[in-house]
Amino acid sequence: MLFSFFSFADFTDVPLRDDQRDYLCKIADGVNTTTGNATKETLFCK
């Protein structure tokens, strides 16, 4: 169920280590309904 915590989240300005970002990019999904930002875009996924 860890995935559900990260769906539709906005990570703008959240400091993350590279390994954390890489992991979250693998499971990121959705668009934050409040900000309108895609989760993967706010993580700067490659």
| DSSP strand content | under 5%
- Radius of gyration in whole Å, from Cα? 10 Å
Major beta-sheet overview? none
* Average pLDDT, all residues: 88
What is the percent of helical residues? 40-55%
Helix count equals: 3
How many β-strand runs? 0
**Cα end-to-end separation:** 24 Å
Order of helices and strands: HHH
Oligomeric state of shown chains: single chain
Shape: globular
The unreliable regions are: none
Counting structural domains, the number is: 1
Q: Structural class given helices, strands, pairing? A: mainly alpha
Please describe what this structure looks like.
There is one protein chain. The protein is an all-alpha fold. The chain has one domain. The chain has three helices and no strands. The longest helix has 10 residues. The chain starts with a helix and ends with a helix. The model has no long low-confidence stretch (mean pLDDT 88). InterPro entries: At2g44920-like.
